[in-house]
Amino acid sequence: MKFSLENSAGYSIRSYQAGQxxxxxxxxxxxxxxxxxxxxxxxxxxxxxDRLVENWPPSSSAVLAMEHLDMVLATAxxxxxxxxxxxxxxxxxxxxxxxxxxxxGIEVMDNGAACRTYNVLAAEGRxxxxxxxx
Length: 134
Prior knowledge:
Hypothetical Protein Mth938, Chain: A; 34% strand; globular; 3-stranded antiparallel sheet
């Protein structure tokens, strides 16, 4: 699926397909114009409007642990969009509870929906973190 988004600066998601995500770093340009630099990633990743954390350790929802969540929380998001791969898989209740106790919203969805939602929230200027398990 190909996305198009106008944004003034930061990271957005250009496209997603099973097993990979294309992230674009925008320097005062539209994501499909010169000035936008893209990278295709095939391992789990954390994306915020101002930060890209490659090689995020969890390889599946089944191995998602608190130390992985701590890496996402270190980006100081107001909301986390957790993409669990090609299908929606809810993480352990302890992970959700840790977010709620820290006053951080968390939404769990498949990666396609997570990518779309991240782009919308980032375009609105929200402090969002997309944590995508690839």
